[in-house]
Amino acid sequence: MVFSNIKGLLLTLAASQAVQAHTTFTNFFVNGADQGDGVCVRMSNIPSQATFPISSVSSPDMACGVNGETSVARVCPVNDGATLTFEFRTWPDASQPGSIDASHKGPCAVYMKKVDSAMANNTAAGDGWFKIWDEGYDESTNQWCTEKLIANDGHLSVALPADVAGGYYLVRPELLALQQADKNPSDPQFASSLPCVYVGCAQIFYESTGSAIPGNTVSIPGYVDASSPALTFNIYNQPMALPYPSFGPPAYESTSSSKRDLSARQSTQTEGLMPANCVLVNANWCGIELASYSDENGCWAASTACWDQCTDCYDSAPPTGSKNCPIWEAKCTAIQDACSAGNYNGPPNAGQNLTPALSSSQSLPPATAMTGSVEDSSFPQSSTVATATTTSTPTSSSTPAPSPSFSSGAGTSIDTCGSDNGGLVLAIAVILVITVIPAVNQASAPAQAVAPSACIDMLEGISFSILSNGC
């Protein structure tokens, strides 16, 4: 089959449109252990705009980004007082290095919101958000927070408050880039003189024994307006008008007077668990092991079921990519070939974990302190990093809800921070791909092979999404 290479090509081409200086939150670490690309992370469903900033501070997308009201199938467990490290990338699939352009200077912050269910849709925007950490301009080092982020290879770390009530949370890292804050709104390239805002959300279950309920919550959107001095701050003035004026609520600090509510605490995670029979992970998709078979009908039924899951793997792949889907595709090909050869016993390598261990290049860099409102919020040493396959993760026998597929619908993200659109090149590539690939598949597929037509439909959807959104 050839559709895996084409899917990867289109995602790469889509990402290349939005890559100029932009960024997006792609994955996170729990006490140094990478949870995996896109795992438990709400991301844009428009690959060509995945790294674009939010168009307006009044948009609901300010909460968790474009498509941020749509949950994903996984919720990551996080132990009491853990350090979370958020990774930002210019290229969502890490096909090239980079976190954010050096010209994009500004503050960072991390917010949390307690929710009844991390997998419920339409709960991100609105009240309930509290800040746990922020940093603007560090006058002792003459660095913006984003400059420290770049020095740390796109990583930003913060220790979670240990006393807040356990349960489901959305955790929201936020970057502001102020390089356009001095511009005239009449500039036709920019909708306003506001900074570029980059946000995303992780779905977690916080295994905390605490019972504190932060009282100083805010609504997002609504926690800052367009006229805020923090959003119109001129980074080019010499000297700058320091200190940088922070915005939003003060960061939460645990005190003896913090409101406590034992009834608000949830002690057991019941949703977003990895299925016990999951043998391959790609972002929030799980490849479920096929039922055993020993005759021809069972073999071809397994082949069909395998290709159905293969299509789901590619369909659900977020902008971080479908890098593990070809592994499942190879499994399906092996079953199909065995059926064709009259070998009806399987599936092959039943129950074997196929998810690759993270490579050393995905480890965190050496620690570089980023001081802020939360104590001990520095980067963990790379020696503490564990691989995703060795992370202790609860499992469930139930299959998770499918992740959302790519859509051709437009979000409220807009490229107001300068990107090099290569729409013509991409359009030509997409046309060639969609014209050639169906014929190749038809000519090469065995008579009883399950044709992955849905994969081709998905590719067409991506291409039309890209072309219809001004790229």
Give an account of the 3D structure:
- By secondary structure, this protein is of the alpha+beta class.
- Helix content is 21%, strand content 19%.
- It has seven helices and 18 strands.
- It has helices at residues 3-17, 61-64, 145-151, 296-316, 325-340, 423-444, 453-468, and strands spanning 24-30, 33-34, 41-42, 76-79, 83-89, 108-115, 126-135, 137-138, 143-144, 155-159, 165-177, 196-199, 201-209, 218-220, 274-275, 278-282, 285-288, 395-396.
- α1 packs antiparallel against α6 (423-444), α4 (296-316) runs antiparallel to α5 (325-340) and α6 packs antiparallel against α7 (453-468).
- The relative contact order is 0.20.
Helix amount: 10-25%
Low-confidence stretches: 11-19, 186-192, 371-416, 418-471
**Secondary structure tally: strands:** 18
User: What can be said about the biggest beta sheet?
Assistant: 8 strands, mixed
Total number of helices: 7
Shape: globular
Give the N-terminus to C-terminus distance in angstroms: 29 Å
